[in-house]
Design goal:
This protein is mainly alpha-helical. The chain has a single domain (22-252), classed as Four Helix Bundle (Hemerythrin (Met), subunit A). Helices cover 68% and strands 5% of the residues. It has nine helices and four strands; from the N terminus they run ββααααβαααβαα. The termini are far apart.
Length: 282
């Protein structure tokens, strides 16, 4: 019997077999459509950046990050995960969170110091590519302890893209930023620092443990989400500043928690090995 994913065969009047296309369920199509829409947002962000519409370009990258979080959850909810979808998602992440932010930052201010500015943009893009490649390799590791699911190895590419655009948020917010060559130098250092966090093995909270909400907290969570969306619509740059600063502030907490869980796992492993050892001879 033919697999529905590889097609099927039917017999014609002259006894010959011809191959027909298989029907793909919509539960496989919908997550990939969301991923394609995210790619369109990332490419449109590059267009806006080239036209000098930097605020819109930044917002489109943030929207692409939202869709990046939705497509995976949608695939799991519909039982529509596939190898094709995983590869498409990885390519979308590189475009949306590696290429688009680099062009945006360069067109915005890094071009004022062309050589070092372009170097910072290249380093950021390369770090995003390495981060995504490592994620694709590690996701197939069956020997990972269960507690590793609480962390990402290195800053995720979507978070890296959103964090790297912090100077743009500050510039378009009520806070404002001073202009000048010194500020561009500081931005170059900051972008390279974010690239280092993506390429490094520093643990970051994954957020994958956030799932179902207890019934008694449902109204509170619903109110908080609605308030957040309203605040983001009314004060997008200020909210993005707060989110970026809060995320970076969580990094030391993430490192300490990872170290504590690693020590506990190592102690439990040592204890189990000691229990399996035969008693010593008198």
């Amino acid at each position: 019997m033919q697999d529905h994913r590889t097609g099927s065969e039917e017999t014609t009047a002259n006894g010959k077999r011809k191959r027909r296309f298989a029907r793909i369920p919509m539960r496989f199509v919908l997550p990939n459509l969301v991923t394609l829409l995210a790619i369109c947002l990332g490419l449109t962000s590059i267009r806006f950046a080239s036209e000098g519409k930097f605020e819109m370009a930044a917002i489109f990258i943030v929207l692409a990050a939202v869709l990046d979080g939705l497509d995976g959850r949608l695939a799991r909810a519909l039982d529509g995960a596939s190898r094709f979808g995983a590869e498409l998602d990885s390519l979308a992440d590189f475009v949306d969170f590696g290429v688009a932010p680099a062009f945006l930052l360069y067109f915005w201010s890094l071009h004022e110091i062309p050589s070092f500015g372009w170097f910072a943009a290249l380093v950021f893009t390369i770090a995003a590519a390495l981060r995504l490649a490592r994620f694709n390799v590690m996701i197939d590791d069956p020997g990972k302890p269960a507690w590793h699911a609480q962390f990402f190895v290195g800053m995720p590419a979507p978070a890296g893209a959103i964090a790297a655009m912090l100077p743009i948020y500050l510039s378009y917010s009520a806070l404002g930023l001073p202009e000048g060559r010194l500020f561009v130098v500081l931005e170059i250092v900051y972008v390279i620092g974010i690239a280092f966090l993506m390429a490094s093995r520093i643990p970051h909270f994954s957020g994958k443990q956030i799932g179902r909400v207890r019934r008694e907290y449902f109204i509170v969570v619903l109110f908080a989400v609605a308030s957040f969306i309203l605040a983001l619509a009314s004060f997008p740059m200020e909210v993005l500043i707060a989110l970026t600063v809060a995320y970076l502030a969580l990094l030391p907490i993430s490192i300490r928690r990872h170290a504590r869980l690693s020590a506990e796992a190592e102690a439990a492993h040592t204890e189990s090995l000691g229990a399996l050892e035969p008693p010593g001879q008198p």
